[in-house]
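Customer escalation, tier 2.

The customer says the design service returned an amino acid string that "doesn't look like it belongs to this structure." They asked us to rerun it and document both sides in this ticket. The original structure tokens are below, unchanged.
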């Protein structure tokens, strides 16, 4: 079993996908989670590469948010597109990272990711409320590298 497979069980992955669906239900914003084994780059730099490779920069309102995790490197980042970054408080992503880290330290990886997704969804709802013509622009599934 690889480190990525051991990081989250299939049930935990489904819980995270459900959290994304819940978080996106009341917003036009898009949330993705990407998990990979390791990175030798700073986590924000790698998250930016993944952000573009997943075409998260192509959402209509530039309101995509990526939660990036490199399991063996013990690194993670939360990255928002220009539309959301221009509206949230300066330290918003830091607060979400601290929430995740507090659970990661207790090896509650799924819980940390799930709670961060729900918090991000609340902010997206505040700044990008759901519109009748909204569509789910990005997959809710966890991507893996």
């Amino acid at each position: 079993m690889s480190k990525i497979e051991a990081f989250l069980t299939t049930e935990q992955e489904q819980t995270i996908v459900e959290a994304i669906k819940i978080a996106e239900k009341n917003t036009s914003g898009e949330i993705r989670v990407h998990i990979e084994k390791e990175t030798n780059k700073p986590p924000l730099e790698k998250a930016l590469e993944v952000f573009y490779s997943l075409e998260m920069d192509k959402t209509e309102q530039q309101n995509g948010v990526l939660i990036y995790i490199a399991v063996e490197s013990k690194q993670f980042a939360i990255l928002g597109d220009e539309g959301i970054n221009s509206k949230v408080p300066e330290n918003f992503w830091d607060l979400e990272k601290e929430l995740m880290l507090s659970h990661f330290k207790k090896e509650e990886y799924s819980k940390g990711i799930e709670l961060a997704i729900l918090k991000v969804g609340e902010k997206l709802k505040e700044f990008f409320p759901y519109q009748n013509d909204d569509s789910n622009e990005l997959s809710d599934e966890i991507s893996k590298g």
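Tier 2 assessment: The sequence is consistent with the input. The CA atoms of residues 52 and 68 lie 12 Å apart. The chain has a mean pLDDT of 90. Sent an explanation to the customer and offered a walkthrough call.
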